[in-house]
Amino acid sequence: MSAEPTRETTFALSVVIPSFNSARWLPSTLGALAAAVRAADIAVEVVVVDDGSTDDTEAVLRSLQAGFPGEVVVVRQENGGRFLARWAGIQRARSATVFLLDSRVLVAPDALRNYVSASRVDPAQRAWNGYVVTDPASPLVGLFWEVPTHVFWGRFLRSPRPFDLTRDTFDSAPKGTGMFIARKSDLEAAFLASWPEGDARFVSDDTKILRHIADASSIRLEPGIAATYRPRTTLRGFVRHTFDRGTLFVDSYAGTGVVRSVVLLVLAALPVVALAALIVLIAAGLTGLALALVITLVVAALSPVVVAAFNRCRPRGLLAFVVCLPVFVVPFWLGLIRGVFIHRRAFLRARKEEFA
């Protein structure tokens, strides 16, 4: 793909991009990154980890390498999921600072310039989380998560500002590894502490890692380090992603506190309990109570729309939640069940002091 770079090269950043069948996204992703690199006037290397792609990722990257203002290196591996893909990229990175970037994320033109300025003002800050928004032009199926996001982190989203994620504030603002900058050594420690016991495709590649880093120091969520995420655009992709997200949701929070663990188990059991109660009521001829139960469940399921609207969620995001909710429920619940089974040992662990 590119000639082996000299070891004397000094990079301000090593950009690690895990990629699985992302050929259609990579040209625009690397194009936006190139513009940001030129604006910041810094030396970067890009490590793209091809996670067993079956599309023309290799040919696309070969065509893009020559025009990129930095080195582009490709690491190939069998499909093992984003956790192992990111780990492979981090191991290949030659800068002391690693920039994790998703293949669907468009970096804002001034994002890296703002990062350089902010890091110079506060050189002691070891980790930076970019502020990533979903592409508003996405089809409705891609905007479903706007409502949950504005429910959980509405206070921050109503007025985005620099925010420090620590042990105590970790759940107070949005975060993720889709656009994340940290010391290579800190990332290595966090990955090793979160290393999967089984199939790495079923473990979180963000929440557990970020929690480890935030617990050790802090993560600066900086709106000036901005980007846009292009979500899945097909119903099939949404369903598959929802199923996986249910499993990763369990891995992210199981065992991190009694309340969180109980909530996960309640969410897994609730559909079964509700369905059993409905069958019993109908069998007993109590159709009025059965109807009341259905109405209650529907109202409860749609109640996040009200909270999200208060937190200034965009109208199309609200509509996406209402339209896609019937499609979301079953695959997410099945993903939860899979997660509870796969990560069942996490529920039995003694709660560690750092999660108290």
UniProtKB/TrEMBL annotation:
Keywords carried by this UniProt record: Cell membrane, Glycosyltransferase, Membrane, Transferase, Transmembrane, Transmembrane helix
Residues of the signal peptide: none
Domain Glycosyltransferase 2-like span(s) in chain numbering: 14-124
Domain of life: Bacteria
Main subcellular localisation: membrane
Gene3D superfamilies attached to this UniProt entry: Spore Coat Polysaccharide Biosynthesis Protein SpsA, Chain A
Pathway stated in the Swiss-Prot or TrEMBL entry: Carotenoid biosynthesis; staphyloxanthin biosynthesis; staphyloxanthin from farnesyl diphosphate: step 4/5
Compartments it resides in: Cell membrane
CDD domains cross-referenced by the UniProt entry: Glyco_tranf_GTA_type
Record-annotated membrane-spanning stretches: 262-282, 289-311, 317-341
GO CC term, one of those recorded: plasma membrane
A GO molecular function held by the record: glycosyltransferase activity
Role: Catalyzes the glycosylation of 4,4'-diaponeurosporenoate, i.e. the esterification of glucose at the C1'' position with the carboxyl group of 4,4'-diaponeurosporenic acid, to form glycosyl-4,4'-diaponeurosporenoate. This is a step in the biosynthesis of staphyloxanthin, an orange pigment present in most staphylococci strains.
Similarity field: Belongs to the glycosyltransferase 2 family. CrtQ subfamily.
Entry protein name: 4,4'-diaponeurosporenoate glycosyltransferase
